[in-house]
């Protein structure tokens, strides 16, 4: 009984061993390559439980599991040089998947995913360097960046297709200047900004001088025009004043001569005036004689007239009783009479006060 039990136990264990060695499971994230003595028998891409020949230990049938999902490989801190000689530090990655497991197994030694990834990264590195080397310094930082990624992808795809790999996408995640290039770039940008500031400052100074010159010219024109208008108005007022005085004094020519003589006496015989030696019979003292307009009886030189001048605006003047009557002694003076300038001829009166003296009876 014991021998039979052990025999049955051995058979059961052997059966379980053969069954376990003949079955394999493929999940949804994998694909299986079934090999028999190193040759590919079939590729299983659908998830499930599958059967193969046992004796895996003797290489009768073996199963290699390969990923059936998107894979990613990164390049970090890759230093590239552009056409102008400047250098960038680039980070990039590629996304791919094993599309043809049979081709992948035959193209890659032992079907190693690490070997395939290394080959792709080597080609990816070369494509990045070639693409950046054909561009200018600022191309990677402009709208041409998308075009550069497409160009890199197209260069790597043939290599990936030869390995049974489908290259889905390539992205450049970072493009930075090296520290040396960054310092030079910042220095150049600062110099350009300073130059621009100096240019704007110079243009502002030029505009300020132009505005100042225009303003000064306009101010000079305004002042000159105002002075011209003032001179015109002053001349018109002076002409009107002279015409008014001429009309007033023209009414009595004898009174005008007497008034001007009184002004001359005031200027010549004042206390602060110069000393003069004149004959009493001089025509200058004609109004000090009996036949003068004022009827004065004094005949001595230097004697004041009967009605001496009291101030700059007052003068003693007689009023004739009738045009044909003899002059009488003055008994009244015009109120607030303003003297005319000395030296004006009797028949053409010059400047005189605006107020017209009016003789009284």
TrEMBL record:
Coiled coil: none annotated. Residues 21-189 form the Band domain. Residues 309-361 are annotated as: Disordered. The chain crosses the membrane at residues 6-26. Pfam families: Band_7. SUPFAM superfamilies: Band 7/SPFH domain. Belongs to the band 7/mec-2 family. HflC subfamily. This is Protein HflC. It comes from Aureimonas glaciei. The lineage of its organism: Bacteria, Pseudomonadati, Pseudomonadota, Alphaproteobacteria, Hyphomicrobiales.
